[in-house]
Amino acid sequence: xxxxxxxxxxxxxxxxxxxxxxxxxxxxxxxxxxxxxxxxxxxxxxxxxxxxxxxxxxxxxxxxxxxxxxxxxxxxxxxxxxxxxxxxxxxxxxxxxxxxxxxxxxxxxxxxxxxxxxxxxxxxxxxx
Length: 128
Prior knowledge:
Elements: H1 3-19, H2 22-28, E1 29-36, E2 51-53, H3 55-68, E3 70-82, E4 85-95, E5 101-113, E6 116-126
Parallel strand pairs: 1-6
Antiparallel strand pairs: 1-2, 3-4, 4-5, 5-6
Helix pairs in contact: 1-2
């Protein structure tokens, strides 16, 4: 894929994710898509974090976040193709399900296979 095609793919994925658009997400991802979240159950999900498999599970995670996280904002978005992956970097702020405010730098790594995103690897670093 060209860099322009990679950027178009991540744009379509990002928009579908933001709208919780199941069909849009499915159109941008492989059938075996996995999301490796930034955290998991201690001992059980190490070192990958919790792994969400398939669009239905992704939709459940997005729906849970929409219901439980408040005042979420995103800033400083940068997306770059790098060979067969897309790197996405941004800052996010909000309030989590425990009422605790967060401010994070995030890096998402999206491997691409056959023109579709096959995985989302998420890495978070908290700011003080």
